[in-house]
Amino acid sequence: MAEKAGLPDNKSLYQKQADSVKYREKNTSWYYQIKMERGNSMKTAILIPAYEPDEKLVDLVHELSNLQFPIIMVVDDGSSKKCDNIFSSLEEIPCCTVVHHNINRGKGAALKTGIKSLLSMNEDILGCITVDADGQHLPEDILKTAEIFERNSDNLILGCRNFGAGNVPLKSRLGNLLTRTVFKFSTGKSITDTQTGLRAVPVNLMRRFMELPGDHYEFEMNMLMQAARSNITIEEVMIHTVYINRNKASHFNPLLDSIRIYREILKFSFSSILCSIIDIGLFSLMFWLLSSNNIPRPLLGATVIARMASSGINFTLNKRVVFRNSEAALYQVAKYYLLCGIQMLGSWLLLEGLTLLVPGYVVMLKIFVDTLLFFISFGIQRRFIFGRSVSHEKNAGIL
Predict the structure, then answer these.
(1) How confident is the model at residue 109 (pLDDT cuts 50, 70, 90)?
(2) Angle in degrees, CA 110, 116, 118, rounded to 5
(3) Which of 34, 231, 282, 371 has its CA 20 to 30 A from that of 56?
(4) Does an H or E element contain 101, and which?
């Protein structure tokens, strides 16, 4: 973000951003007009999970209070005693409510506590906007997200950063690329910023998200997965890309939180690996038996028997564990076994052709062919058998 002329150079990045907002409030009309036109008409709550915050959070909540958000919910996720004065200051700000965890339970748990608290207040809100406490989300971007959301309050709105910007740390750039790829592979949907903490969530989704598993950063990925599976429109709004001190204040654990986030795809991999072991084991056994007894077409017979045995297990695991689809099973069974039959035929034909080219390596060729078919099968199951389509829109914004 370009700095405003006239701002002191010896201030921190966030102080400059805060002063920039105050500068515009004093010298331009946008901030004043918003307050005059909207008054108390904003119907979207703010939800901020906070762990070991500093004064930046107090500054942010003051700005949001001035923008007439009806409720600002801050969840203290077990911060240390040194942050007591921060939360005391927040409790003095109009419309701000602070809820405390006795221990650090994780960002997902804090978000769920905040959602539950907001719903229990019985306020007439359209939904809530989740905001990070570390200063990465600017008031004008939060307001921009809120205004778009209040015109489309059934949609999940994501405030997306520009990862091509020069101030993005390499680990954040790579992390987003990886999670985008995993999300695309799991759902078939493309999202620019899967890790954004700035999200406008409709009130009906708040109730559903509250029941999702995950107490840490994986909860945010589970939110996106649930929205994609539930045919919720996901709308992107471009926001400023802000990283303070190269994001050193982040509480993200690269190892543990990455494992949690990628659990969805790991579950599918486990399902597929387990069924592949069964399939290849039975295939090897049946191919040996059929070949030893001079049964015609041993490759075809072994392929059919092995696939019939493994496919039932694969269907059940994918439906109940991987894709968590609760639709009537009969239609899905028909689609699944149609796919299974086509895949089985493809596997046999490929094996027949490859064994003519490379004789004597039947099992190795079987593993190669089934690995190739795994990726094709996953995409088809995700999109046509267990998945649902979801609209995905992008709005241009300022950077």
Answers:
(1) very high
(2) 100
(3) 34
(4) strand 96-101
Determine the Cα–Cα distance for residues 110 and 174; give it in Å rounded to an integer: 26
Give 336-377 pLDDT, tens digit per residue: 788 888 888 888 888 889 888 888 888 888 888 888 887 777
Distance of alpha carbon 395 from the chain centroid: 19
Closest to 131 (Cα-Cα) out of 42, 49, 52: 49
57, 48 in Cβ contact below 8 A? yes
Residues 6+ positions from 95 with CB-CB distance below 8 Å: 65, 69, 70, 71, 72
Q: Which two tokens stand for residue 358?
A: 């490379």
Residue 98 · residue 91 · CB < 8 Å: yes
Least confident segment among 89-93, 117-121, 244-248: 244-248
Asked if 117 contacts 58 with a C-beta cutoff of 8 angstroms, the reply is no
pLDDT band at 14 (very low <50, low <70, confident <90, very high): very low
Residue with tokens 């809820």: 99
162 φ/ψ sector (left φ>0, alpha ψ -120 to 50, else beta): beta
Helix (H) or strand (E) holding 35: helix 30-38
Give pLDDT, residue 367. 85
On whether the CB atoms of residues 237 and 158 are closer than 8 A, the answer is yes
Query: Cα(202)–Cα(109) distance, rounded to whole angstroms?
Result: 19
State how far Cα 350 lies from the chain centre: 37
Q: Does residue 99 contact residue 73 with C-beta atoms inside 8 Å?
A: yes
Q: Which residues share a beta bridge with 76?
A: 50, 100
pLDDT value at residue 225:
82
Distances (CA, A) of 356 to 40, 194, 349: 76, 46, 11
pTM of the model: 0.65
pLDDT of residue 322: 56
Do 231 and 390 touch, CB atoms closer than 8 A?
A: yes
The gap from C-alpha 396 to its chain's centroid, in whole angstroms, comes to 21
CB 146 within 8 A of CB 129: yes
Measure Cα distances from 285 to 275, 341, 354 in Å: 15, 21, 20
Beta bridge partners of 199: 130, 158
Q: How far apart are CA 232 and CA 390, in angstroms?
A: 6
Structure-token pair, residue 152:
């489309």
The alpha carbon torsion through 205, 207, 211, 216 (nearest 10 deg) reads 70
